[in-house]
Write the structure tokens for this entry.
Amino acid sequence: MKFLLVSRVDNREALSFTESLGTRMKGTGHRVFFEEETAAAIGIAGIPFAGADPDLVVIVGGDGTILLTVQKMPRQLPIIGINWGEVGFLADVEPADAADILLEISDGFSIERRMRLSFMVEGRHVGDVLNEALVVTSRPAKMLSFGVIIDGVLSEHFRADGLLVSTPTGSTAYAMSAGGPIVDPRIEGVLLVPLAPYMLSSRPHVISSDRNLEIRLESAKPATMVLDGQRSIDLGCQATIVVRKSREPALIVDIGRNFFEKVDQKLRRL
């Protein structure tokens, strides 16, 4: 099997672990390559995502590292996360088990397709997310005004500090902290969670991904949209954001862990 290894590059222990994991997998007869930024941090030669064609991308880090890796891939490849973060909802494997699990699945593995969301702003594609897009004011302590249009109908208009547009996968991330529900990642829907809304009647929504969804920003204050905590887009004071199901889902290796059991175990750490 051909592995492409990716590590968080701000942690020397994670980099050392990634290098030693690669050495062990090579020793068992597998082909191992390192993503170019990871390789540069280790001090070896690497390859870019655009030039890689691995059977599996192995990511050592927390959820942020996994989200960044998914953002960087020009096409989605199967990924498995080794948890080198704090909670790690997207990282199913603990470091002590990593080598054994990789050897176990090297003869074949099943994939869980996780829906991503694609965003257009004023007719221009600005990116896709696996977790969420966050729309917040560019200046602290200022409220924004939002209109939610579903299938051409204005379904809600509210003022809030911001708005989270989340996938079910992202429901256990920022959306959960903001009061949204935990959603089974097998459900293909869009979760809207207002941040500190002015009216108590403005509640989270879960909307089918088959519907036509638009968010209209109508505010006297400029706003910024942040995609998966990785990229920022200036929206100005008025913008129309079109939300659609992405053509390419994230491809996450299924190692047989029940989602709700994992949620229970992870939340006990918080």
Summary: Residues 2-114+249-267 form a domain with the Rossmann fold fold (CATH 3.40.50.10330). The chain has a mean pLDDT of 93. The chain has six helices and 16 strands.
